[in-house]
Specification:
By secondary structure, the protein is an alpha/beta fold. The protein contains ten helices and twelve strands. A hairpin with a 2-residue loop joins strand 2 (16-21) and strand 3 (24-30). Helix 1 packs parallel to helix 2.
């Protein structure tokens, strides 16, 4: 069995790490370079860095910041935000990123996933999908940092994304984001069971038991932000707990 991964997420706005609830009410959480170095030292398996307003503001991800973070850590590092072309990805990989994460641009032009996978390999392409459960009960895809509803069912879009070459899915429940009441376990489990690529669960981790539950139910990795940034849970203590749950942890 592949080892399960714990992934702190650095949401970046104006060069600082921020964290909110349900994608709004953002508050400052510190310097991303310092936080990245701390998490790498604590034993995080990977990091995800999302420039959360790049798409909304119509600009590119901050390559210089990516460079500085890459120099401070020795673990794999995924970067997303404002990526819309092969050139964008090349710049970020050259700056030190190991993988890239696409979201809104890929949904608007799905051929982007095909192009990126052909150029850089599927293992390098993470498809981020932000979802919210609507009144009909199905999980709908949202774009632009959760600002724009698409009317599309998340499972259909995820299956298309994987067919086009996405090598990993980052599934974030906006309903659970920052609330710390547990991950969206049922939909995460459903998606993971239907795919041959890894699924990263995101949104809702508040206690070590929440992480254990979603990993036991099929997620390959669990991503969180505020519980780590505000020192409610340390990466080290979380991984020790998960080992007691008989989960394969590095």
């Amino acid at each position: 069995m592949l080892t399960k991964r714990i992934i702190p997420c650095l949401d970046i706005q104006n060069g600082r790490t921020v964290k909110g609830t349900n994608f709004v009410e953002l508050r400052d959480a510190g310097d991303p370079v310092e936080l990245a170095a701390i998490y790498a030292k604590e034993g995080a398996d990977e990091l995800v860095f999302l420039d959360i307003t790049a798409t909304h503001e119509g600009r590119k991800t901050l390559a210089d910041l990516v460079r500085r973070i890459a120099q401070a850590i020795n673990i794999p590092f995924t970067v997303g935000g404002g990526i819309a072309s092969v050139e964008d990805v090349r710049l970020l990989l050259d700056s030190g990123a190991d993988k890239i994460c696409v979201n809104s641009a890929a949904f608007k032009r799905p051929a982007l996933i095909t192009e990126l996978a052909a150029e850089f390999g599927s293992q390098c392409i993470v498809l981020a999908v932000d979802i919210k459960q609507n009144h009909g009960g199905y999980w709908e895809v949202y774009l632009n940092g959760g600002r724009t509803a698409t009317g599309s069912d998340c499972k259909e879009w995820i299956l298309e994304g994987v067919a086009r070459g996405a090598g990993e899915i980052l599934l974030t429940s906006m309903d659970h984001d920052g609330v710390k009441n547990g991950f969206a376990v049922d939909i995460t489990s459903e998606v993971a069971a239907s795919l041959s690529v890894p699924v990263i669960a995101s949104g809702g981790g508040g206690t070590p038991a929440h992480f254990a539950e979603v990993l036991q139910r099929g997620a390959d990795a669990a991503l969180a932000a505020s519980v780590f940034h505000f020192k409610e849970i340390s990466v080290q203590s979380l991984k020790q707990y998960l080992k007691t749950c008989n989960l394969p942890i590095r």
